[in-house]
Amino acid sequence: MTVANRRARSPRGSGEDLRAALVATTAELLETHDLDSLSVRTVTSATGVSPTALYLHFTDLPELLRAVKKRFFTELRDALTAAAADIADPSERVRALALAYLAYAREHVGQYAVMFHAHRRTDAPSTPAPELVEIGWAAFEPLIDAVGAVLPAAPADEVRETSVELWLALHGRAQLSVAMPWFDLPDETRYVTRLVRQLLVQPT
């Protein structure tokens, strides 16, 4: 059953309801459609409205995609927060967050690809919109806070840098697992355990 079949045509002037529907439909489409092939007509057809309706809420397709990315990063933050909610030990909390991050990337391949999509057009902006940078960092606050709890004496810059190093290793594994599914990667749990132990060595 397609997205269009699941959603009835939205009434004209439905305001924020239609805006939310466009974001939700685009998010669902991106689970099965390549980002670069997505079009205004594809989104509006699946939502059950005319292409003109999209422009009542978004300047263009890139603005709609920014709204979708914000939704995905918020969902990632919620997933990370939930994974570590009941874990008191700081190192175990970091480990749980790392495993939850990899699980999110594995279970939401389309969403994950959109979140970190790199534009290849020469006219694309060299940096993302400021609101995306803000929401992106917000998604990683649970990880940064957990790393800070493991390294309480470390300055904020070191905690942030260590958190980024951890993310780079996790992101690399997540990307490779999609790009090279046939490659025999190390066991995920052991990989995360070693990674956390190596990066979060506390000074004696």
- The chain-level mean pLDDT equals 85
Indicate the percent of residues in helices. 55-70%
* N-to-C span: 59 Å
Structural class designation: mainly alpha
C-alpha-based Rg, rounded: 19 Å
Shape annotation: elongated
Give a quick account of the main beta sheet: strands, pairing sense, barrel closure.
Answer: none
Helix and strand sequence:
HHHHHHHHHHH
Unreliable parts: 4-13, 120-124
Tally of alpha and pi helices:
11
Q: Give a count of the beta strands, DSSP E runs of length 2 or more.
A: 0
Strand content: under 5%
What keyword list fits this structure?
66% helix, elongated, mainly alpha, 11 helices, 204 residues
How does this model look, in words?
- The protein is elongated, with a radius of gyration of 19 Å.
- It is mainly alpha-helical and 204 residues long.
- It contains 11 helices and no strands.
- Helices cover 66% and strands 0% of the residues.
Summarize the structure.
The protein has about 200 residues and is an all-alpha fold. About 65% of the residues lie in helices and about 0% in strands.
Outline the fold blueprint.
Layout: H1 3-6, H2 16-29, H3 40-47, H4 51-54, H5 61-83, H6 90-107, H7 109-115, H8 130-139, H9 141-150, H10 156-179, H11 188-199
Helix pairs in contact: 2-3, 2-5, 5-6, 5-7, 5-8, 6-9, 6-10, 6-11, 9-10, 10-11
